[in-house]
């Protein structure tokens, strides 16, 4: 798995955004995030506002994620203002095969499958001729508060590896 | 049909002059890429019959498997978008476009019953005439004959897609691909009267690279276009200032030496004492007027010529800074400073690499163009290379498809909106 994972989030707002596009992230994110013009950064993870729809009740973010907990942090901050958030992962090459295997999905056949994970329905689309796999799911506050986002992320991208030192010392805990 | 369905099924296609970039919104940040070309199989040949090859045109990743001799390559390989414009009656080029479009959509179309076709956003050159839009829509309609692949389609010019991807409503987009370069000032919409095109792109640099390879003793390899392109991408450099870069290269031959091994073959290219010519490759794209290029023209290398294609005049030898200035000066004076302060460079032709130890003499495209514009008296210039310039058009298509509401129907006067096909 790559050093940073790239995701796309489509967020459906409860009310239409009344701030300018440039102000949306600062309105939604917690103070840990350094907010710039349409982008925000937290310890190497970068979120970008890709677009708001013309009705201004939905927006799309792209996220380049360094640490899984940043995803949870981001989702928790945004979901309070949203009916739901759709989270999209796209995997290519060996990563696509590995994720398909982890989810028990046939990668060699093009098509859409549904998989349940942590109480959430995942939609898995396989494109074997391009060696690509897309996984998407929808979360609202209920799923977020149960910690589903982090659990699913770890299942898809693998739990962060502990350092060799912590693994050596693990027996002491 | 809901906005939510559309959001899941936006599909972007960038008909680039060299590469064809495509894929649905769910692919994230990086589209699939194949070469924008098709190979017409000799269906009368005994081997085609024996092998039961039923298609007349081969496109996509498996194309190399069907290639025959080098001679037939020239006759049978068609690059439809070479200069961004396809002749109305060039049936072979249109056939390739149709096949590529089908190849792209087919490979991502889900098989489930819920699928009612993609919302396709296609992007073509800024200089594409109206009949190209009409022809493309006809092709899109035909896509649905066997199975519904396209719910609705729209077409946008490539520079507008770049501006959309970067959410910059006022800017100059310089899109430089394989076949040509387009300079397009944008103030909410492209300012069509100010668009300027150069008959120079990555292919011009390839032609020069081929000459350099011949001079260095690799005349046999210089005939293989894809190899020449690879050598250009790996060894070509963009000089900060050409004369001093050449002096530097001659004083530091080992530092500048260009050597390249082609993986999977026994080929090793070593430019040796000709390594200083690495700087010519980048310079030629930005300014082919330096006297050093005269020796190549004198030996028969074709000079980029001024040509008229459709209604558009493509300049051959105008340097890139002059082209930007001429284009911007066709816009209202009040707008000009805003345009100079946001110049976006997009397209694979701006991806010049700068090796760490050559930072003194080699530069990236944005720095080169900034200094060229400053030399010509333009102050407060900000030139930016788009993030992954090869893909910015495709990304713009995706953002555009997401943003245009489903009930905003195609209007031939405004040239925007969705044309429903299913």
The CATH topology of the largest domain in chain B turns out to be Nucleotidyltransferase, domain 5
Which structural class do the helices and strands of chain B define? Answer: alpha/beta
Residue fraction in strands of chain A: 35-45%
Q: What proportion of the residues of chain B form beta strands (DSSP E)?
A: 15-25%
The number of distinct structural domains of chain B comes to 2
Continuous helix count of chain B: 16
Query: What is the number of strand segments of chain A?
Result: 9
- Overall CATH architecture of the largest domain in chain B: 2-Layer Sandwich
Proportion of helical residues of chain B? 25-40%
Specify the CATH class of chain A. Alpha Beta
Distance between the termini of chain A: 28 Å
Q: What percentage of residues of chain A falls in helices of 4 or more residues? A: 25-40%
Q: What best-fitting shape of chain A do the alpha-carbon axes yield?
A: globular
Mean of the pLDDT scores of chain B? Answer: 91
Give an account of the 3D structure.
The complex is a heterodimer of chains A (173) and B (422). With 173 residues, chain A is an alpha+beta fold. Chain A has a single domain, classed as TATA-Binding Protein, CATH 3.30.310. Chain A is 30% helix and 38% strand. Chain A is built from six helices and nine strands; from the N terminus they run E-H-E-E-E-E-H-E-H-E-E-E-H-H-H. Chain A has helices at 21-28, 68-79, 93-103, 141-145, 148-157, 164-169, and strands spanning 5-13, 34-35, 39-42, 45-52, 58-65, 82-92, 111-117, 120-127, 132-139. Chain A has a nine-stranded antiparallel β-sheet with strand order 2-3-4-5-1-6-9-8-7. In chain A, helix 2 runs antiparallel to helix 5 (148-157). Chain B is α/β, with parallel strands linked by helices. Chain B has two domains: 3-37 and 79-158 and 390-420, Nucleotidyltransferase, domain 5 (2-Layer Sandwich), CATH 3.30.420; 197-311 and 313-385, Nucleotidyltransferase, domain 5 (2-Layer Sandwich), CATH 3.30.420.570. Chain B contains 16 helices and 19 strands. Chain B has helices spanning 3-9, 46-50, 70-76, 91-108, 130-143, 158-165, 202-215, 225-235, 242-251, 253-256, 278-286, 294-298, 320-328, 336-340, 365-375, 392-403; strands at 10-15, 19-24, 32-35, 38-40, 57-58, 77-78, 118-124, 150-157, 170-176, 181-187, 189-190, 196-198, 259-261, 268-270, 307-309, 312-315, 343-346, 383-385, 419-420. In chain B, helix 6 (158-165) packs across helix 16, helix 7 packs across helix 8 and helix 7 packs antiparallel against helix 11. The mean pLDDT of chain B is 91. The A-B interface holds A 6-8, 10, 21, 38, 50-55, 58, 60, 62, 88, 90, 92, 110-112, 125, 127, 129-130, 132, 134, 136 and B 3, 7, 23, 25-30, 32, 107-108, 110-112, 167, 399, 402-405.
């Amino acid at each position: 798995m790559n050093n940073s994972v790239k995701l796309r989030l489509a967020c459906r707002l409860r009310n239409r955004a009344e701030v300018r596009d440039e102000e949306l992230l600062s309105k939604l994110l917690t103070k840990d995030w350094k907010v710039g013009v349409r982008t925000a950064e937290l310890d190497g993870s970068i979120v970008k506002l890709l677009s708001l729809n013309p009705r201004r009740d939905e927006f799309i973010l792209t996220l380049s994620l360094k640490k899984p907990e940043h995803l949870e942090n981001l989702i928790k901050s945004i979901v309070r203002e949203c009916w739901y958030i759709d989270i999209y992962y796209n995997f290519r090459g060996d990563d696509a095969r590995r994720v398909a295997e982890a989810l028990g999905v046939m990668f060699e056949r093009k098509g859409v499958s549904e998989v349940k994970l942590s109480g959430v329905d995942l939609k898995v689309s396989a494109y074997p001729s391009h060696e690509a796999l897309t996984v998407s799911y929808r979360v609202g506050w209920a799923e977020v508060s149960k910690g589903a986002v982090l659990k699913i992320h770890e299942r898809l991208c693998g739990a962060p590896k502990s350092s060799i030192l912590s693994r050596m010392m693990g027996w002491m805990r | 049909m809901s906005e939510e369905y559309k959001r899941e099924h936006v599909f972007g296609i960038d008909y680039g002059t060299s590469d064809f970039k495509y894929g649905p919104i769910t692919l994230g940040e990086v589209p699939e890429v194949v070469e924008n070309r098709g190979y017409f199989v000799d269906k009368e040949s005994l081997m085609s019959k024996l092998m039961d090859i039923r298609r007349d045109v081969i496109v996509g990743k498996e194309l190399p498997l069907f290639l025959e001799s080098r001679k037939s390559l020239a006759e049978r390989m068609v690059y439809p978008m070479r200069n961004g414009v396809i002749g109305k009656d060039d049936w072979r080029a249109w056939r390739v476009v149709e096949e590529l479009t089908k190849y792209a959509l087919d490979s991502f179309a889900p098989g489930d019953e819920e699928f009612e076709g993609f919302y396709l956003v296609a992007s073509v050159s800024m200089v594409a005439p109206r009949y190209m839009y009409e022809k493309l829509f006809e092709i899109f309609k035909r896509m649905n004959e066997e199975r519904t692949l396209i719910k609705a389609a729209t077409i946008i010019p490539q520079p507008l897609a770049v501006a959309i991807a970067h959410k910059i409503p006022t800017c100059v987009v310089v899109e430089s691909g394989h076949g040509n370069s387009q300079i397009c000032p944008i103030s909410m919409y492209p300012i069509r009267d100010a668009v300027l095109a150069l008959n120079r792109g990555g292919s011009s640099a390839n032609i020069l690279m081929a000459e350099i390879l011949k001079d260095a003793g690799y005349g046999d390899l210089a005939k293989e276009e894809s190899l020449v392109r690879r050598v250009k991408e790996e060894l070509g450099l963009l000089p900060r200032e050409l004369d001093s870069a050449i002096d530097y290269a001659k004083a530091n031959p080992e530092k500048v030496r260009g050597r390249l091994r082609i993986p999977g073959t026994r080929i090793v290219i070593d430019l040796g004492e000709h390594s200083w010519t690495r700087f010519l490759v980048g310079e030629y794209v930005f300014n082919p007027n330096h006297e050093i290029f005269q020796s190549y023209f004198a030996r028969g290398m074709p000079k980029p010529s001024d040509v008229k294609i459709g209604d558009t005049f493509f300049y051959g030898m105008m340097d890139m800074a002059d082209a930007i200035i001429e284009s911007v000066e066709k816009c209202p004076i009040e707008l000009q400073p805003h345009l100079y302060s946001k110049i976006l460079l997009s397209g694979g032709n701006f991806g010049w690499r700068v090796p760490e130890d050559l930072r003194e003499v080699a530069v990236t495209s944005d720095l080169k163009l900034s200094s060229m514009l400053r030399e010509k008296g333009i102050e407060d210039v900000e030139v930016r290379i788009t993030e992954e310039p090869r893909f910015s058009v495709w990304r713009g298509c995706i953002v555009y498809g997401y943003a245009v509401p489903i009930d905003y129907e195609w209007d031939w006067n405004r040239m925007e909106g969705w044309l429903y096909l299913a």
